[in-house]
Give the backbone structure.
Amino acid sequence: MGRTKLKKFIELKSFPNVFDQEQEMISANLKKYFANKNSYTLEVGCGEGDYTVNLAKQFSDRNFIGIDIKQARLYVGAKKALENNINNAAFISARVEKLTDVFKENEVEEIYIPFPEPHVRRRSIPRRLVSPEMLNVYKNILRSDGRIHFKTDDRDLFQYSLEVISKAGLTIIKQNSDVHSQENLTLAETITTRYERYYKREGRKIHYVCFRF
Ligand SMILES: C[S@@+](CC[C@H](N)C(=O)[O-])C[C@H]1O[C@@H](n2cnc3c(N)ncnc32)[C@H](O)[C@@H]1O
């Protein structure tokens, strides 16, 4: 590990808004941190947590949590939240597959999945954050009326997600195959992440779908 990365890693350990899925009391610790009974909105594979920070700034009566396995990325969002006194945002170093160890049934209000890896090899398809296996994880923690927002620049992954949604008989609330060429966008479409800004500069089309169980 490089010196800068190591420094960030050590600093991250002292951040009050960062939790580790391995912590024994993680659910209780999250409740203590937020100190309210507001529901949770998750950003999975959050990277630098653009949705978490942006939404938390706008909705002070809700709790937002970014989840990622890469701590160097979590560091950026967590630091931004701390520097801006955004107390209703937190971050968890965790695999999405383990979320049922952290959250109980109906505890989550909404889930954002921005720009996950496409995992093109056949055997890694179950690791896609919109695979049936992952949807099952979300179903176990999401409220029955909870929405899932998915954004990608990858046409094949988008097509795959629509097939998964259709096969599972889920309800599509909004679908947009070229976000940046449209007007009247929802807030979920408007917020951009680090990866989205990069893809936008490259002139790639951004696809979005919002759906529920
Ligand atoms: C392509 S990056 C996108 C980051 C960010 N969402 C953005 O749009 O800027 C995908 C992120 O998902 C995270 N990720 C991939 N699989 C994951 C998993 N199973 N659990 C948690 N995070 C995961 C990666 O570590 C990475 O930071």
About this structure: The mean pLDDT is 96. The longest strand covers residues 142-152. The pocket of S-adenosylmethionine is lined by residues 45-47, 67-70, 73, 95-97, 114-117, 193-196 (CB under 6 Å).
